[in-house]
Give the backbone structure.
Amino acid sequence: MQAKELKCKIVGAGAWGSYFNSWESLQQLLGGEPLPETKNKGPKPSIIPANERRRAPLPVRLAVESSCQATQSAGLEPNTLTCVFASGLGDTELTDYMCKTLASEYKELSPTKFHNSVHNAPAGYWTISTGTMSAANSVAGYEESVPLTLLEAFIQCVTEHKPMLVTFYDAPVAEVLRPILSNQETFAFSLVILPADAEIDGIEVTAEVTAADQLAWPALQSNSDYITSMYADNPSAKILCLAELITTSNGSKSVTMPLSQGTSISFTRT
Amino acid sequence: MATQTESELTMAQLLVEALNLEDMDAEEIDPEEQLFGDGLGLDSIDALEISLAISKEYGVQIKAEDEGTREAFATLRSLTAFVENKK
C-alpha cells in the first residue's frame, strides 16, 4: 500500500509544566538551561469565566492554558480553529473519586466532579470559554495518544483544509493508581497547525505513516533528568520528541514514533 | 455588611469549600446578600453542590420540588435557618 504523505505548517505553540510556563521557557529547558528554583503552581487561565474556572480541575486548566498560549502565538482567533485534545490518562483524581464514592455507602456524586469526569471536559471548557462552534475532538490512546492525535490533526488539516489546534495534557496520577501508572509530572503542550499553503510563516512538517514497527520511542537530545523522566512517564510528554524537532537549535530533521502494532509515523521538517 | 452568627460562619465555610470559591473567605460572605444571580453569583450547579454538601454534613435533604427551597437558597441567613430547622 502506498504511504500517504501529509504536509502541514506549525505556526504556534504553547506549553505548561511544573518548571516552565511557556513554549519559550520549555525550549530553554530543552536547550540545557537549569531548572528554575521554584515549581509553578497550577495555571489559572483567565480566559475561563470565573464561575467555570473555580470548578475546573488541573487537567482542564493545563489544556486551556497551553491552548490559549498557542493560539496567541499563532496570532489567530481561538474560535477559528478546529480542535483535537488528547490525554493518555484522563483525570485520575476524578476517576478515583468516582470509584470511591460509588463503592461507598453514600453514593451521591458531586455534580461538578461528575461533569468534569468525562474525557472531553477540557474540550468543553475550551469551546465554552472561547465561544468556538468548531468541531472539538478528544482522543485517548494511553502511550500512543500523541502519535494518534497528531495523525488525527494532520489528516483533518490536510483533507478538510482547516486550521487546527492540537493540545496534549496529562496531570500527575492519583496516589491509588501509582503502582500501575508512574507519571508524577504535570505537562501540557499545544500546537497550531495550518495547511502547508497557508500564508503565515511557520515550520513545515510532513507526516508519513508506514507499515513498519517502531517499538521504542526515539531518545531525546535533552539529557535533563526532569525532561527525560517526563518523556518516559507522562503520555502527553511524548510530544517532546517533536518539540525538539521544531526547536531551531536542534539539528535533527526527522523523528519516528510508534503508532500501533505494525505501524509507525514519522515527522520530517521540510 | 450584616454580622454573621456562629452557625452562619460554619455554613459559609461549607459553601467556600464545597464551591471552591476563588479568592473568598467565609467571613466575607454577607449573610443578607443574595447567593444566586447578582449577589454572590452562584448558579444551578452550585445549588446542586450545596444540597449535596448539606446532606452530607447535616443529614438534611433539600429537594428541588419542595416548597420553601427557593426561599431557603436566597441568602446565607435563610439557608442556615432552613438547615437549623430541619436538623
Notes: The mean pLDDT of chain B is 91. The two ends of chain B are 27 Å apart (CA to CA). The domain at 6-86 of chain B is CATH 1.10.1200.10 (Non-ribosomal Peptide Synthetase Peptidyl Carrier Protein; Chain A). Residues 44-58 of chain B form the longest helix (15 residues).
